Write a sequence for this structure.
C-alpha cells in the first residue's frame, strides 16, 4: 500500500530521501535538461559587440563561432515598455517623468494632517488593538464631533490607500527605482565566450524560460513581463517577554531582482504575513482529522495572502518598473524556500517521498521517473 498523507510526522526526511535530493536535485547527477534557444535570437540587449553587427541579430550557432559572450532574452514575454493604458511604446521611447512629491500641505487620502497623525499614532506608533480603536472613535463621536474615521475598518482602508511617492505601498517593491540596473524584465539565457550556458539569477534558469513559454501561449500576454514570487517561511521563536512564543513569518520577494540585491538590505525581501500553524497535545498530534485541518489551514492561508495577485496571473496588469517605464505584468508563483517538513506540507505528499519529482519512495534513484 502506498503511504498516505496521514502517516505520522517526522522532523527530518529519512536518509535515502535526503541522499536522493542532494544527488538528483542539488548536484544534478543526471545533468541539466536540454536547453532550447529561440531561433532566431531576438532582443540581444546585452550582446557584447552587437553594435558592430549589421542587420538582424545572428542565431545561436553564429554567436558561438564569434566567441563572444551574450545574453538571449525571451522573444515573446520580453517586458516591452507601455503607456499607463497598456499600449506598447515605440523603441527607445524615454520613460515618463515620475510625479513630483506631493504638496507638503496635501495629506491625501487623509482629509487633514490631524487624520494622518491619528492614523500614524494608532497604527504604527502605538499599534492599538482594533477593539480599542473602535472604542476611542465611538467616544470621540459621542463627546466631541464627527471622528476622523468611522471605525478600525475605515482607518485600515485609508492606510491601504496611502501612496509612497507615486506608487501604492502594495506595489512599491516592483516600482522601487533602487533596483534599476539589477533587475531582469524578461527570462534570459546567458552564454559565455565558449557558447556554454551560465546560470546565476533566477531569470537565467530553465524554469523562468519555460514558464514564459507557457504564459506566451495566450496571445494577450505577448510583450508582458513575467514576475515570479519567491516565498519562504520558517519557525521563529521569540522568548523576550513572550514566554517562548513561536511565530511562522512568510517572506516574499520577486524573482526578477538579482541575487546580490536580495542578499543586501535593499527592501527586496519583505514579510508578507504570519502563518497560523495550529498545535494540539500529544494525544491528537497524529490524528487524521487534525492533520487534515492543519494542511487545509496552511494552504487556505497562502490562498488568501495571494488572492490579490490571482487576476494578474492570467490577465496582465500595468505597473511601473524601476526604470520608470510602465509594463504589463503577469505574476506567477515561483520557488518556495522551506525545510523538508514544510515541503511535504506544501506538496501534499507523505513523509519520505521527494517533493520535487515523482520518484517512488522505494526506488528514489530510478531513472524511469519524472525528475524535475
Amino acid at each position: 500500500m502506498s503511504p498516505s498523507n496521514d502517516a505520522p510526522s517526522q522532523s527530518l526526511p529519512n536518509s535515502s530521501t535526503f541522499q536522493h535530493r542532494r544527488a538528483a536535485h542539488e548536484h544534478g547527477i543526471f545533468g541539466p535538461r536540454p536547453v532550447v534557444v529561440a531561433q532566431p535570437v531576438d532582443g540581444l540587449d546585452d550582446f557584447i559587440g552587437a553594435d558592430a553587427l549589421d542587420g538582424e541579430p545572428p542565431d545561436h550557432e553564429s554567436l558561438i563561432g564569434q566567441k563572444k559572450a551574450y545574453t538571449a532574452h525571451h522573444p515573446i514575454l520580453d517586458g516591452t515598455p507601455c503607456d499607463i493604458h497598456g499600449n506598447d511604446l515605440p523603441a527607445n521611447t524615454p520613460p515618463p517623468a515620475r510625479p513630483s512629491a506631493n504638496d507638503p500641505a496635501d495629506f491625501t487620502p487623509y482629509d487633514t494632517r490631524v487624520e494622518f497623525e491619528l492614523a500614524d499614532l494608532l497604527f504604527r506608533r502605538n499599534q492599538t488593538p482594533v477593539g480599542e480603536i473602535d472604542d476611542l472613535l465611538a467616544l470621540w463621536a459621542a463627546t466631541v464631533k464627527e471622528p476622523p474615521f468611522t471605525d478600525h475598518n475605515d482607518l485600515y482602508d485609508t492606510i491601504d490607500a496611502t501612496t509612497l511617492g507615486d506608487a501604492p505601498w502594495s506595489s512599491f517593491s516592483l516600482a522601487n527605482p533602487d533596483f534599476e540596473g539589477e533587475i531582469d524584465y524578461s527570462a534570459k539565457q546567458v552564454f559565455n565566450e565558449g557558447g556554454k550556458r551560465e546560470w546565476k539569477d533566477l531569470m537565467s534558469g530553465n524554469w523562468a524560460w519555460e514558464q514564459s513559454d507557457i504564459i506566451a501561449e495566450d496571445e494577450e500576454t505577448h510583450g508582458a513581463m513575467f514576475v515570479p514570487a519567491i516565498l519562504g517561511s520558517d519557525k521563529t521563536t521569540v522568548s523576550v517577554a513572550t514566554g517562548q512564543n513561536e511565530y511562522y513569518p512568510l517572506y516574499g520577494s520577486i524573482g526578477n531582482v538579482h541575487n546580490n540585491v536580495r542578499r543586501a538590505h535593499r527592501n527586496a525581501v519583505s514579510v508578507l504575513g504570519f502563518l497560523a500553524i495550529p498545535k494540539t497535545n500529544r494525544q491528537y498530534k497524529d490524528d487524521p482529522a487534525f492533520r487534515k485541518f492543519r494542511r487545509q489551514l496552511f494552504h487556505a492561508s497562502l490562498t488568501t495572502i495571494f488572492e490579490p495577485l490571482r487576476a494578474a496571473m492570467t490577465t496582465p496588469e500595468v505597473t511601473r518598473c524601476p526604470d520608470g517605464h510602465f509594463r504589463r505584468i503577469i505574476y506567477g508563483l515561483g520557488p518556495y524556500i522551506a525545510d523538508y517538513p514544510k515541503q511535504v506540507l506544501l506538496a501534499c505528499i507523505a513523509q519520505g517521498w521527494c517533493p520535487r519529482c515523482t520518484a517512488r519512495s522505494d526506488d528514489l534513484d530510478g531513472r524511469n521517473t519524472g525528475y524535475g
The chain has ten helices and 13 strands. Residues 123 and 156 are 8 Å apart (CA to CA). Residues 67-108+163-347 form one domain.
